[in-house]
Amino acid sequence: MGQRLAPWRIALTSFVGYAFSMNIGQSVLSGGAVRMRLYTGWGMGPGDVTRIIGFNFMIGTVGQLLLIGLLFTFVGYRIPDSVEVPFHSLRLVGVVALLLVGAFFVAVGRKRRWGLRC
């Protein structure tokens, strides 16, 4: 973000924001509000804090997709017969999740070609 904060402030904000996110729910709103309040109080601009919140949300989503992809692809959960869907295995869902994670990493690797600044 181009600004320097003491490591203890970053750790405190991360811990408190994560605690609110996991206990209240709606992580972008609850944890995001905590992060916005603390970081802006320490001199960061709202735009920078919004980028931090977006980064946290994106990385959390990628991590969940990776876990879903690995579990569904290699463990092969079976959908119960009582659930009516046109398929009986979640392996395809897992492969799609892994492809999305791979696409994310390719996009991040090529961000300079798109002119993005992160």
Compact overview of the structure:
With 118 residues, this protein is an all-alpha fold.
Description:
With 118 residues, the chain is mostly helical. It folds into two domains: 1-44, no CATH class; 47-118. Helix content is 73%, strand content 0%. The protein has helices at 7-24, 27-41, 46-75, 91-109, 111-114. The N and C termini lie close together (8 Å). The model has no long low-confidence stretch (mean pLDDT 84).
Structural class: mainly alpha
Distance between the termini: 8 Å
Give, in order, the helices and strands. Answer: HHHHH
| Tally of helical segments | 5
Q: In angstroms, what is the radius of gyration?
A: 18 Å
Note the main sheet: none
- In the predicted model, the low-confidence regions spanning at least 5 consecutive residues are none
Strand content: under 5%
| DSSP strand count | 0
Q: How would you state the average pLDDT, rounded?
A: 84
Helix proportion: over 70%
Number of domains: 2
Shape label = elongated
Record keyword descriptors for this entry.
118 residues, mainly alpha, 2 domains, 5 helices, elongated
Could you give the topology of this structure?
Blueprint: H1 7-24, H2 27-41, H3 46-75, H4 91-109, H5 111-114
Helix pairs in contact: 1-2, 2-3, 3-4
